Amino acid sequence: MNISQAFSIPATGLDAQRERLNIISSNLANIDSTETTEGGPYRRRDVVFTATALEDSFGSMMNQEMNPVKQVKVSEVVYDQRPFSRVFEPGHPSADSEGYVLYPNVNAMEEMVNMISSLRSYEANVTVLNSIKSMALKALEISR
Question: I want to staple 105 with a disulfide (CB 3.0 to 4.6 A). Which of 52, 69, 82, 97 is the partner?
């Protein structure tokens, strides 16, 4: 594994967790959105991570067949299919004929746990990046 691959692995983890944090913050921001441009209440979103091989050149692809180096990326953003919350609020502008309002299927507690998990993963990737940087600097000092 070369130094660029060593830096690339945690960097892709940082990108994936950043995108996950953006989705989580979007979910939290729309926790009370009863009307969207698509119609109906906001539907919770989540990310799906995929591990893929790093592909730089033909030679590195040959090497990866022997020693695969993985990177993580967000392969898709999926919509949560859990049902919406139905709350009786007859005075609400989005209430149906029976007085019920459909609220998003976003659970604030679940989103906060996901956010903490994502932040911890982000911090772990930063720690790995700093360790690689430190090792590279020590290797340069040895060569002097």
Answer: 82
